[in-house]
Automatic annotation (TrEMBL):
The lineage of its organism: Eukaryota, Metazoa, Ecdysozoa, Arthropoda, Hexapoda. Gene3D superfamilies: alpha/beta hydrolase. Residues 1-18 form the signal peptide. Keywords: Glycoprotein, Hydrolase, Lipid degradation, Lipid metabolism, Signal. This is Lipase. GO terms for molecular function: hydrolase activity, acting on ester bonds. Belongs to the AB hydrolase superfamily. Lipase family. Residues 33-92 form the Partial AB-hydrolase lipase domain.
């Protein structure tokens, strides 16, 4: 099964690289439509980055339950993980998902979408079919996309700071932003890192063993083949496979359960299956192969540092043989970390390393339930009590 998954991953990758298929998006409910269907007001905004990417932000400006459109509403930006998009903050519905809980607590909620995902697949100068479109990884999402979103939100709302919450890669890009562009610390009122990912030395997921070994060090054949392509493209074929395995009425849900070994040490018990089925419609959502390769490099090097292009290009780009580290001591914004024991990607020992280097971290919260895994922060039946209520409470504490 594991081999099969890996083969599929590689196939999807290679397929995308070799043939550049037309991207066929199936009909799906967008984040915006989903928000409206639950009765909330919704706005769609686009932000163009300095390098031309057009990013979509969905906004829940206020709660129809509170009718607080004329009250002061502090802004919160929510940022999704790898392979994901803004749907991850909505899929468990108004009673459980963080976006709605924050709206109902009086916040102006903005849902970000990183370059490359189904909501942010446009660039004003580079065509989607040009490999240059995919020449980025989460370094650029952290140093360009998130700052652009924050500046846009501050401009639109007239506020001077935002609250930020991210899941998985949404935490990596926060760390990258604040260490590489420390002036953004002043624009963050508080940051909330769900399943924080920076170090991967102890990653238990088979993805490290099978994929990391192939692409974790620069210069290899797989590396050359896979760089600058779309990683698991969001097209009809991939989506059909995901839907067959994990969708409603699936007769093959052992595949879906098995896919969970990538994120959890066998833990599937907390999953809200209905929520997962909602997510499957728009996932995997599209990302660059470089994002995956960069993570595998962190696994191989045990360091949290920039993309490794090999000695020659590193010297040109960075003026040194090895890529520079992200300096976590530069992060001074009030930041809360929420991590879990059964996370096979960003597990407790690697969180320890993060905490030890994150000198100004405000809080290191460990989810007390042992079985809680990486995806549970997004799709667990019990994530409201174990995660989201805490996040809302912490954010409230900065508003007095
Ligand atoms: C599970 O997800 C469904 C679909 O969004 C939602 O309606 C339901 O309230 C969720 N239940 C829990 C306990 O999270």
């Amino acid at each position: 099964m594991r081999i099969f998954l890996c083969a599929l991953l590689c196939l999807a990758w290679t397929f995308a690289g070799a043939n550049k298929p037309e991207v066929v998006l199936l009909d799906f409910v967008t984040s915006g439509e989903r928000i409206r269907s639950h009765g909330y007001p919704m706005e769609t905004h686009t932000v163009t980055t300095e390098d031309g990417y057009v990013l979509t932000l969905f906004r829940i400006p206020y709660s129809h339950k509170l009718q607080n459109q004329n009250a002061e509403r502090p802004a919160v930006l929510l940022q999704h993980g790898l392979f994901s998009n803004s749907d991850c903050w909505l899929s468990s519905g108004p009673d459980n998902s963080l976006a709605y809980l924050l709206a109902d607590a009086g916040y102006d909620v903005w849902l970000g979408n990183a370059r490359g995902n189904i909501y942010s697949r446009e660039n004003e100068v580079i065509s989607l079919n040009n490999p240059k479109f995919w020449h980025f990884d989460w370094h650029e999402i952290g140093t360009i996309d998130i700052p652009a979103m924050i500046d846009y939100i501050l401009e639109e709302t007239g506020q001077s700071q935002v609250h930020y919450a991210g899941h998985s890669q949404g935490t990596t890009v926060y760390l990258v932003m604040l260490s590489e562009r420390p002036e953004y610390n002043a624009k963050i009122k508080s940051g909330h890192l769900l399943a924080p990912c920076a170090f991967f030395e102890h990653g238990a997921s088979p993805v490290f063993k099978y994929v990391g070994a192939l692409v974790g060090t620069p210069g290899g054949v797989w590396n050359q083949l896979l760089v600058d392509t779309e990683l698991i493209p969001h097209n009809a074929l991939v989506n059909r496979f995901a839907d067959t395995a994990c969708g409603e009425h699936s007769e093959h849900d052992e595949y879906c359960r098995n896919a969970f070994v990538l994120f959890a040490n066998g833990g599937y018990q907390n999953t809200n299956v209905t929520s997962l089925q909602v997510l499957i419609e728009t996932h995997p959502a599209g990302s660059s192969s470089n994002q995956g390769i960069h993570y595998m490099q962190l696994w191989a090097s045990h360091e949290f540092r920039q993309y490794d292009w090999g000695t020659k290009k590193n010297r040109q780009l960075y003026g040194q043989d090895l890529p520079p580290d992200y300096d976590l001591s530069k992060i001074t914004a009030a930041t809360h970390s929420y991590s879990s024991h059964n996370d096979a990607l960003c597990g407790p020992q690697d969180v320890d390393t993060l905490v030890s280097q994150f000198t100004h971290l405000t809080e290191d919260h460990r989810i007390p339930l042992q079985s809680f895994n990486h995806l549970d922060f997004i799709v667990a039946k019990n994530m409201k009590e174990l995660v989201n209520d805490l996040v809302v409470e912490r954010i409230n504490s900065y508003e007095g």
